[in-house]
Specification:
The structure holds two protein chains of two kinds. By secondary structure, chain A is mainly alpha-helical. In chain A, about 60% of the residues lie in helices and about 5% in strands. Chain A starts with a helix and ends with a helix. Chain B has twelve helices and 16 strands. Chain B has helices at about 5-10, 15-25, 75-85, 100-115, 125-160, 170-185, 185-195, 205-225, 235-245, 250-255, 350-365, 405-415; strands at about 30-35, 40-45, 50-55, 60-65, 90-95, 260-275, 275-285, 290-300, 315-320, 330-340, 370-385, 385-390, 395-400, 420-430, 430-440, 440-445. In chain B, the strands form three sheets. A six-stranded antiparallel sheet of chain B has the order 13-12-11-14-15-16. In chain B, helix 5 (about 125-160) runs antiparallel to helix 8 (about 205-225) and helix 6 runs antiparallel to helix 7. Classes of the chains: A mainly alpha, B alpha+beta.
Chain lengths: ~525, ~450
């Protein structure tokens, strides 16, 4: 558009005269055919003449050099169109119903080395910003090369696709953390090499982040790296910072649980000196069991300097109401982290008897607020979780009378977990159900368990007229077994009086679950 | 024609309806489902005491349901049609029940009545009718003229004071004159004023050219209306339509205008809500004639659209075109067949330069032309930063229209199998609004 004309229009004809000298002969002729016109009409007429002329005479612009949309060669085979269609439908579900199904569906793609046809990929790409990290990583594996080529348009994919060491060297703290976490998952040896090379030059807070990531996903192969870091970076110093001591504690905790580590050897060789054969009467009866003689006074092992220097254990502040002396407190730390087998071996007892020894031993029981408390019981609970000891967890759960072992339920198999929930009638208890191992797997609940949860939920909502707990509803939509479809239909057909609650059941459970189960049944075909 | 699942999804009013409809597309959900050769129907349990009755005209794609949903088509209609697409064998061939028969017969009667010749009336009655019509036309003409006098003054005041004051004007400033235009039965001008008020006055200086463009077009239309009597008949019709006179499909169907028989490919569909009226625009391309066409459908809260055209479908039909300066708007007179496959490829423009020449020819016919359907043979989509452009084989480029969703462009990129591809779109505001691409001789909706 003519700049002078635009300028006049912007300022107004009252302030700026019409630039008639700029108009072409043709435009002036048109304006002349309206002899009585005012400057405003002249400006508007001149504008539409010139706009039309510009538009009708417009020339195409020449493009610069471009990287365009070119065909890409695919290496893997495309999945059947029907499976792609199921994936697209799954992507359109709300997140609460979607992710478990998506995980199952992606497993099928991975198992068959299939990729999604590019034309069906957009539905998956559109939801990536809401996907959990594991699904995001899997998504990349089942995308075609063509689909990968448009990844730069999706913000959260940039980190995953550009796994480049430059991110480690020049990225922000967040970039570096993301890079390292991916590297740990994809290429453990390279991750370890990177730690070996650069760890010492990192700031303390970032060192903590790295260690937390490694320790969270600890493998035996990481042992030497952690031991090296413990010796070089977090060896005891008189003027060390609190965070350095806490990181030594973090490292030794993990290494204590590894019976091949030097820290474990140090602890076990010293601790074993304090086990002595149990009383003479028992020996006379042929028993070869031992007992732990915990000293009351400091000695070469049980002293503040040794504990702080080698394990980063607290040496001043501990709960004096719970522990009679600091040695008992340090023992609690060892019980938390050492493999429970160590105690069994030293005491010459089976696992259950070892637990009895520690939890029924008068020396380890205190009276607090009128209650008798076994001081090492919580340590065994923590130990089961920390060392992921399923056998220990099972025994603790089996003998639990106070519902304290729910956090260990994730260590049980699906069958054991369902049995526990059944025995304790915890079907609609979010606090128990949230620890189920199913949350980390692609498996569904068993048919019987699914049907029972459906029945209980129906009774709860429609008959007792109470709302189904939100998380239970979410898990029901995700983990319900497809074979429970008949039960779902049966419950939907039941005659009831409360129209409102039946409508709630229909909207909250029946309709979404029907869709989910139909999709699951369709996916079964590919398993 | 039996629609595919993808085509049915195109008919859904929104994504929520697609999801809800998908959930209904299972046999267990329905108490009964059945079909005849022209309609499918079913009964489904809802929140009311009696089951909802749903029927779908499978010959001329239309829906009926007794549910209270205000969406059209509702989830039940979509669900039933999706189920039919997936599992036709589940539909028992039965005699149509009374409620289905009544609805479908009424529909057919309505469609046929539109093609029947008008009833013969006496000369006196005709003269009376003509007099009444003339009086109403004169009254309206006067009303519009009086409205345009005010608008003319409003525009001049604006130009005298300068357009720089526009960003600081309150919404009421625009609403007042727009309402005046509606009262003066010049709704076309009201739309121009609303566009002016909706410009982005904050983001950049782009609004300056856009505002002057709108104002100049309005003034050209005022001038054109004042000189209406000297215009050709098609131009008169175009100008009046742009001012606010409606084009009557019924009158067109009753007229003796020659129809154009062709295989009409539905290039795309756009929905826009203006003053509680939802305007559905369906763009077509005639595979034989090379002509383009647009069919408009209007829906209100009380009146649903008569027919939805599924993008990507080819209608073997005869179209009647309104006798306007740029003959574009049409109505479907008869339809013999609907197919999903292209029997031949449409006629394409070879380059962006040729497309601009094509637009220049249309602007000569109708200077207000903006939405021009175009088919370009060889272009490729190129991302440039956050925006997209198309580049033709000669290296010329054209911007993608800013209202194009990013997903549309990404979908295009995902369908690329050759370096350059044929594309269909709308040339709007010097940029392209892509509608679909041609892949392996098939038309893919974007």
């Amino acid at each position: 558009m003519n700049a002078e004309l635009l300028h006049t229009a912007m300022l107004g004809t009252a302030r700026r005269p019409l630039p008639l000298h700029l108009f072409s002969e043709e435009v002036l002729q048109i304006l002349a055919s309206f002899p009585d016109s005012d400057p405003e009409s002249q400006l508007l007429r001149a504008t539409y003449c010139m706009l039309l002329r510009d538009k009708a005479g417009a020339e195409a612009s020449k493009a610069g050099p471009h990287q365009g949309s070119r065909p890409v060669e695919e290496v893997l085979d495309f999945a059947p169109e029907h499976l792609d269609a199921l994936l697209v439908r799954i992507c359109q579900l709300p997140a609460a119903e979607r992710n478990h199904l998506l995980r199952t569906c992606m497993t099928i793609y991975l198992g068959s080395n299939w990729i999604i046809a590019p034309k069906n990929s957009l539905a998956l790409l559109k939801i990536t910003e809401d996907l959990p990290r594991d699904l995001l990583a899997t998504t990349l594996q089942i995308l075609s090369e063509r689909a990968k080529s448009i990844l730069p348009f999706f913000k959260n994919y940039k980190q995953l696709t550009t796994l480049h060491v430059d991110q480690w060297h020049f990225g922000t703290i967040q970039d570096r953390k993301a890079f390292f976490e991916q590297l740990l998952l994809k290429d453990r040896p390279s991750a370890r090499a990177l730690v070996d090379q650069t760890f010492l030059s990192e700031p303390l807070s970032f060192q903590r982040s790295i260690l937390e990531m490694v320790i969270r996903n600890y493998l035996d192969a990481d042992r030497s790296t952690l031991e090296q870091i413990l010796k070089t970076r977090f060896a005891y110093r008189t003027n060390e910072k609190a965070i350095e001591k806490s990181l030594r504690y973090l490292l030794t905790a993990r290494l204590l649980s590894d019976n091949q580590s030097e820290v474990y050897q140090l602890a076990s060789s010293n601790l074993s000196k304090y086990f002595v054969p149990s009383g003479s009467v028992w020996q006379l009866l042929g028993s070869k069991t031992n007992k732990l003689l915990l000293p009351d006074a400091f000695d070469d092992f049980w002293n503040k300097d040794f504990m702080e220097r080698n394990f980063g254990f607290e040496t001043e502040q501990y709960d004096i109401a719970l522990y009679k002396n600091i040695q008992q407190f340090w023992l609690a730390e060892f019980i938390r982290f050492l493999p429970v087998d160590f105690w069994c071996t030293q005491l010459q007892l089976k696992l259950l008897d070892t637990l009895v020894y520690f939890n029924r031993n008068e020396a380890f029981i205190v009276k607090l607020e009128g209650k008798m408390i076994a001081i090492y019981y919580p340590c065994f609970l923590e130990n089961a979780n920390f060392t992921k000891n399923r056998e220990l967890a099972k025994i603790l759960i089996e003998h639990d009378k106070k519902n304290e072992t729910a956090p260990l339920l994730h260590l049980l198999s699906t069958i054991e977990f369902e049995e526990y929930i059944h025995q304790h009638e915890q079907y609609l208890n979010e606090d128990a159900m949230k620890y189920g191992s199913y949350l980390q797997s692609t498996n569904d609940w068993s048919q019987k368990f699914s049907e029972t949860i459906l029945q209980k939920s129906y009774t709860w909502l429609v008959q007792e007229r109470r709302l189904i707990p939100g998380k239970i509803l979410g898990w029901l939509l995700q983990y319900c077994n497809p074979k429970a479809e008949k039960m779902l239909e049966y419950l939907y057909q039941l005659e009831t009086q409360s129209v409102y609650h039946v409508e709630l059941w229909k909207n909250q459970v029946y309709q979404p679950l029907s869709t989910v189960l139909e999709l699951k049944n369709n996916l079964e075909y590919y398993k | 024609m039996k629609l595919t699942e993808a085509e049915i999804i195109q008919l859904a009013p929104d994504a929520a309806a697609v999801k809800a409809g998908g959930a209904m597309a299972r046999k267990e959900k329905w108490i009964t489902i059945a079909a005849s050769d022209r309609v499918i129907w079913g009964e489904i349990k809802g929140s009311a005491a009696l089951p909802y009755q749903t029927a779908v005209d499978i010959q001329n794609t239309s829906f009926k349901c007794s549910c209270p949903s205000r969406k059209f088509p509702c989830l039940h209609g979509l669900g039933l049609l999706l189920l039919f697409a997936k599992e036709e064998a589940q539909f028992l061939p039965l005699t149509e029940p009374d409620w289905v028969e009544a609805w479908i017969s009424k529909r057919i009667a309505k469609l046929q009545s539109s093609t029947e010749p008008p009833k013969v009336q006496s000369p006196e009655a005709l003269e009376k009718l003509e007099k009444g019509r003339q009086k109403r036309a004169d009254d309206r003409f006067d009303l519009v003229e009086s409205g345009l006098l005010e608008l003319d003054q409003w525009l001049k005041d604006l130009i005298r004071a300068g357009l720089l004051q526009l960003p600081s004007r309150p919404p009421k400033y625009f609403e007042k004159i727009a309402a005046r235009m509606v009262d003066a039965k010049a709704a076309g001008f009201a739309n121009f004023v609303r566009k002016l008020s909706q410009l982005d006055y904050v983001g950049s200086d782009q609004w300056k050219e856009e505002a002057l463009d709108i104002i100049a077009k309005m003034y050209l239309l005022i001038d054109a209306f004042r000189n209406l009597s000297v215009q050709s008949e098609p131009m008169q019709l175009s100008i009046k339509n742009l001012v606010g006179w409606n084009l009557s499909p019924k009158e067109l169907l009753e007229s003796d205008v020659a129809s154009i028989d062709d295989q009409w490919l539905v290039l795309g569909h756009e929905k826009e809500e203006i003053d509680e009226i939802v305007v559905h625009r369906h763009w077509f391309s005639g595979l034989e004639s090379g002509r383009s066409a647009i069919i408009l459908e209007f829906a209100t809260r009380f009146n649903t659209v008569q027919q939805l055209f599924v993008p990507g479908t080819v209608y073997h039909a005869s179209f009647l075109f309104f006798n306007t300066a740029w003959q574009q708007r049409a109505v479907m007179k008869t339809c013999l067949q609907e197919t999903a496959a292209l029997s031949k490829m449409p006629q394409f423009l070879e380059s962006i330069e040729e497309m601009l020449d094509f637009r220049a020819q249309i602007l000569v016919l109708f200077p207000w032309a903006n939405d021009i359907p175009v088919l370009l043979r060889n272009v490729r989509l190129v991302p440039t930063g956050d925006v997209f452009e198309i580049v033709d084989i000669d290296g010329y480029l054209l911007k993608i229209h800013p209202n194009t969703s990013r997903n549309t462009c990404l979908n295009w990129l995902l369908h690329v199998d050759t370096e350059y591809q044929p594309v269909a779109g709308i040339l709007r505001d010097n940029s392209l609004l892509p509608l679909g691409i041609f892949v392996h001789n098939q038309y893919v909706i974007l």
